[in-house]
Amino acid sequence: YERDKYRKLIRINETEIAVLNRKFHNLPTGEEFENPVHLYSQDIDLFGKGSFFQYLNRTALTEGSHKLAYILLENNIDGIEAKQNAIKELAEKADWRQNFSALATLVHTENRSNVILNWLKNYQAFVPGILKWLPWVFS
Q1: Which pTM does this prediction carry?
Q2: φ, ψ for residue 22, nearest 5 deg
Q3: What's the N-to-C CA distance of the chain in angstroms?
């Protein structure tokens, strides 16, 4: 585990050095998030080869990529200050960010988290009819 984590940390730092040298064209482009009818995403190259998404994205999980794309596409000024404060806080925690990313890439899941969350939200307990009366009988 530790060796794999350190390999991921080395890879993360190699990627950051490459990006600083403007060599980021091998990173995910976010083309799956392109929306030709979106008001501004085509004009400012949000997604695709050489895009802002490709330059910015350091998400380690699929859900993170989806959330980043959603934030880039939303035209909502509410919460800008909260997002700026979160960015300031994370900017000061490079070690934490890198450890989180390294650990996240080591986790392999068969189900996306939203599938599990939806299952939990819609879960209905099954209790046989006779068992429903037991607490009443013994109280």
Answers
A1: 0.69
A2: 60, 30
A3: 51
